[in-house]
Amino acid sequence: MGRFREKNFFRAIINNIPVILLLISVLNEFNFNYLELSYFSFDFPFILIFYWSLKKNEILGYGLIFIAGMINDVVVGLPIGISSLSYLFICVFAAYLRNITLRPSLIKDWVFFLFTIFFIKSLMHLLLVLFFSFELDYNMLMINLFFTFLMYYFLSHLFKLYSRIVFGNLYD
Amino acid sequence: METSRDDLVIAIRSALLKKNNKQRFSLIGLIFFSILILALGKFNFKAIDYLKFSLKEIIYRAAFIVSVPENFIFKTYSNVESHFNIYKKYKDTKAELKKLKAQKSIDSFVVAENKKLKKIVNNYFIDSNVVIAKVLIDKKSPFLRSVIINKGSKNYIKLGMIVLDNNHLVGKIVEVNYMTSRVLLLSDLNSKIPVTIEPGSIQSILSGTGKNYGVLQYLKENYNVENNSIIYTSGAGGLFKPGIPVGVLNTPEIEDKKSIVNFFSDFSQLEFVEIKSFNKKEY
């Protein structure tokens, strides 16, 4: 019985790796400080949310995504609600793509992801600059956008592999 | 044409309103809720302030725990690196110590003389209260440079108090919670402090860049500032005590002659910091 319970517990952890990764990434704010790559930064939660909302949306609940956004705002020091809003917008875009897609392809998802992050980052920074008087470095923003876009391709392969191993299907 | 427009509307409606049986919350409802929180936060609505305070207290502690593995990797990496460089560092430190010992005797005379002159000229002397705090979260966001420390209003921390690392300025307190506070680092884009450049006593504003250095702003071209000049706080505007060392000027000759300031303190290595407040004492 004990062994069965243990098995269930580990199974639950493995099944919820995207949720755990999302929470760790917003609490920890992946930054690669120790690599001393000053121009390397990307938004891991953006990739994670977009991919799982698109491929298997029951894994990441909207309530959880909302809370993850709030945590991110507190850790980074942004006005509360702004990351939640951007994460939820990612879900909207992913849901829209899911609804219009008949034959899924990684390249199409990737291009649509670029459009999504452009729209969401613009909205987020427009709000920060116009309503909250933040001063932002636009070069860093563009670099962040570029790497986020680039990393989607590699991470989506990893997620696909994970999905194949854990859930036994491809979801695309 | 009409059909494709209809398809788009249906897809958007279905993306926003279709309630999947495994989703407990409606997407559009949460979007409106986020906008509401943002708007109320902007106008400093009391309930949102309470929500912020309680969230911060919980999340800062949780983030500290979650960061433990990453910090461990980082510390191990720097420990290994410093072991490799230990002999070179020892030689450098020995040479520096010799210089500093010679300088110390001159400095103690200058300090005594300075105290005497301050009493005559300004009729006040500055006293300070020190609180030592541990850095809980040190996360470099691509846009913001700040750290969270484990002292808050419970320890009499107030907004605007200055934060030092080995007597070098690192930033100021911009947010105070009950048991934690946020320090805006000098490297943040939104950080601007009045400084004096020595030698020459030239006044300027040191602005953060979002990177590991700051730049001097509003410095007239006809001022000839020497390379390797030391930057101190000027105390203008009463924001900081004058004379706190900040960094050293490094003007690259090749680039656009931007006056770059390399901070004395390495903001990525902060572990413990001093929080000080300065009061003017009348004599």
CATH classification, class level of the domain at 129-283 in chain B: Mainly Beta
CATH topology of the domain at 129-283 in chain B: Thrombin, subunit H
Number of domains of chain A: 1
Number of strands of chain A: 0
Mean pLDDT of chain A: 81
> Mind telling me the C-alpha Rg of chain A?
17 Å
The biggest sheet of chain A amounts to:
none
The most extensive contact between chains is: A-B, 49 and 57 residues
Beta content of chain A: under 5%
Number of helices of chain A: 7
Helix content of chain B: 25-40%
* Order of helical and strand elements of chain B: HHHHHEEEEEEEEEEEE
Gap from first CA to last CA of chain B: 84 Å
Describe the global form of chain B.
globular
Distance between the termini of chain A: 37 Å
Instruction: Give the low-pLDDT segments of chain B.
Output: none
